[in-house]
Amino acid sequence: MYQQITLIGHLGNDPESRFTPSGVMVASFSVATSRSWVDQSTGERKEKTTWWRVSVWNKAAEPIMQYLRKGSKVLVVGEIEEARAFTDRDGNHRASLEVKAQNVRFLDSKADGDGGQPAQVAKVQAGAPTDTSIEIPF
């Protein structure tokens, strides 16, 4: 069996990196995805935001740390890890949705004055722990 999720959203904070005891680099960041709709009974516009915790492993973590910042728009394709339950500061029960990224595309517009057209600034491929393939098309 195989499961995959695709997310498009904005980073909620700057990425953070760490190293495992065996020296493997891991970059982590949160991504907010939102959906909006009009409530049929009230005509009121509603919006719901879901937060995802994304991890990128090995050499693929390097461009994440170099190019992404809070607010960056990304497309993430990955595998959902087990959700972790926690209690927030107000005592509400919540779940942290964890995604191990296999592919991250940077979707922000180029900063060189091209009129704000969307640009694939970088594409990060993350595979098995030994995969170090990184494609940066600029």
Features:
138 residues; mainly beta; OB fold (Dihydrolipoamide Acetyltransferase, E2P); 5-stranded mixed beta barrel; disordered C terminus
| Count of individual helical segments | 1
Low-pLDDT segments: 112-122, 128-138
CA-CA gap between termini: 36 Å
- CATH homologous superfamily heading: Nucleic acid-binding proteins
Biggest sheet overview: 5 strands, mixed, barrel
Beta-strand residue fraction: over 45%
- How many structural domains are formed by the residues? 1
Q: Write the H/E string, N to C.
A: EEEEHEEEEE
- The name of the CATH architecture is Beta Barrel
User: Structural class, from secondary structure content?
Assistant: mainly beta
Indicate the CATH class: Mainly Beta
Largest beta sheet: strand ordering: 1-3-4-7-5
CATH fold assignment: OB fold (Dihydrolipoamide Acetyltransferase, E2P)
**Average residue pLDDT:** 82
